[in-house]
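Field: sequence (string)
Field: structure_tokens (string)

Example rows 1 and 2, in order.
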Amino acid sequence: MTVASDWSRITVGAELPEVVDPIDYQRVAMNPGATWDYFPGHYDPEYARRHGHPTIFVNTMHIAGFVDRVATDWAGPCARVVRRRISLLGSIYAGDTMVGRGRVLGKRSDCLVDLEITVFNQRGELCCPAEVTLQLPGQAAAAR
């Protein structure tokens, strides 16, 4: 049972469990193929280096998916992301580790929970602050 499956246990300010995800070259290169994002910085290390990056880096959809994972790992498989706002401040490179942290910002009577999610690399550099709103299933009666 996830914390989010019990409406009464959700408290504003509560910390979400940290999610850690090692990113290897294969995953960085496979994601553009899966999402049809063929920008060379996502699969061509020489192109990335010529443009000031140490190597290839994950695309925006990869980071957005990771943000959603941090939220839904906490909330459970039936939670639905209804809003996501992200800002890209830094890149996650092949060989890096994505570290996701979050906390509950608000709890609404219409079964919505607002979360703040932050994505760091293994060096502790903030790469992506985000806000996510989740709709939790079956909470209407508990919310009243």
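Row 2 begins here:
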Amino acid sequence: MSGTAILCSGQGSQGPHMFDLVAAEPAAAPIFAAAAHALAGQDPRELARQGGDVIHRNHIAQVLCCAQALAAWAVLGTSTPRPLTIAGYSAGEVPAWVVAGLIAAPTAFDLVTRRAALMDAETHEPSGLAAIVGLTRDVIDGVCRLHKLDVAIVNGPAHFIVGGHVADIDAALAEAAGRGASRAVRLPIGVASHTPALRRASEQFAGLLRDDVQVGARLPPGVRLISGIDGAPVRDIGNGLAKLAAQISTTVNWAACMEACRGARPTRILELGPGDALARMMSECAPDIRVHSVADFRTVDGVRRWMEEAS
């Protein structure tokens, strides 16, 4: 076992304290400046501290999640043991490409801003995502067919995120609870990410990626980047970009991503946040590997010490 797996989080866990760990770190200053530019001059740290519904609005949430991952990486990246395996969950997949060295941070903020705008433009009715835990895939598929929803993310054999119109989601959650789901709740996300409803957004985002990312780029030595929709390593950049665009309207197989990270046999796995949802899922998938989120620590030195101790 050697190296580190890095997990870049998606939306849902933004909060007033999400940037506390790295807010005052000089290495993170350029990231916060780039994020502020994407937020029309609003400092992401101040915006997060305000809390409330605004930080869960899609066009703001995607920028905040990108800023969280990249600010943490700007501070911790140079001291993180190699080799690296990198995976991004939902909106976290764009910053994952930055961590992998394939996209520059300013470009990433431009991309997530336009990604959010494309998704919002294709959302014509109140829509969103919901988590259903404790039911098997065949039952989930039946619930989705009945209520005109789609499976957005597969987190495990009995842990799914479904997406669609809000009215349909509420009816499906009631049915799922009646069928014995241990958890059936709406998530603070206002678009039906990773469902066919956003197919046009995928097509448009593919064009943006072709314009902004060098298809001939190469991953640095010792870096493995995992594709969100199937858990496969990105070997061809053009194919990887096509999957990154398709991800907007295609089911994310996070269970396969976790298996890919576990299979790389890293010494440690670190979630960059916000929150610790990925770390908790990863701990269940790989109980033999040391896993933490930056959200588990009070100081940057604490994160570094943990990484050293895990060696």
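free_text_note (row 2): The two ends are 9 Å apart (CA to CA).
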